[in-house]
What we know:
- The chain is α/β, with parallel strands linked by helices.
- The protein has 3 helices and 4 strands.
- It is 34% helix and 20% strand.
Amino acid sequence: MTITRRILITGSSGFVGSHLRTWLQAERLDSWGVDLAGGQSVERTICGDLRDQLFLRKLLIDLQPDTIFHLAGILKSDDPQQFYASNVSPT
């Protein structure tokens, strides 16, 4: 019996996320990506804002992932509130 695992990658069009996604697809694993911008043309990529709780709730209910690689976020910001909202709140 084969167990199918669904994998969700946040920040899937970023540097690490895109490489992870390529590897998971090569392994023929059921992987999905979510990204704020970009990646719209990539198959199985959902565009949305993880800070939006309604979007996030619907995403998790619809996909029901077994594993989540949370790679979304920003590296720098002059605004501590923006940094917190982008990196901490979605987690």
